[in-house]
Amino acid sequence: MLSGPAQAKGPGRPTKAEAEARHELLLEQAFEIFLEKGYDQATIDGIAASVHMTKRTVYARYGDKAALFRAAVQRSIDRWIVPVETMRAVETDDLEETLTAIARIRVASALSPAGIQMQRILDAEAYRFPDIYRLFYDRGTLPAISYIAEVLERHAESGAIILAEPRRLGNAFLSLVVSGFVRGAIWGAILDDETIEEGIAFNVRLFLDGVRTRDTPAAS
């Protein structure tokens, strides 16, 4: 059911606020329908009807179904991504503490309803729209990798860790602490808070065991 500005009716052209509200509703409904039915089965007719628009109105803004799909997914990515500032706010002088806090933020975001929906639609349609997966990576993952690399570089300066390729290590960290949880959730695994916390702690320690400096045995 429409609500708020999108429900308003009256003579004349809609206000800018009303038009924007209807556009937001269109993209939201389009994403839900693409997710529920898949790209092939979703139709412009059905999407337009769900928001009480005509097909002609939708086509006036988006030339075809592919353009609407890209716009709907891009909106969802933009609304879902975790700003780097959120991760920067939990950084401390303790590397394990910092990485654990970052992992909690990323895992919570990935396992949120919006995060699972995003992963499902990417899994289903990325072969057809490789550009949306690249968009997801560029806007959601790459900034996190860059920030984690910065954190690692700062700690490498003190000699606490060995750092040859910081961005590659940042990518490895995210894969280690997030990917397994996401796959499990999509496949139906029950992930309670205790399981998640234990998994994060284990994965952070495993990562640190791979990058910490080690005493070199003295030559005999």
UniProtKB/TrEMBL annotation:
Domain HTH tetR-type: 20-80
Highest taxon of the lineage: Bacteria
PROSITE patterns: HTH_TETR_2
Keyword list, A-Z: DNA-binding
Gene3D superfamilies cross-referenced by the UniProt entry: Tetracycline Repressor, domain 2
UniProt GO MF annotations: DNA-binding transcription factor activity; transcription cis-regulatory region binding
Location of the DNA-binding region in this protein: 43-62
Name the UniProt record assigns to this protein: TetR family transcriptional regulator
Source organism: Williamsia limnetica
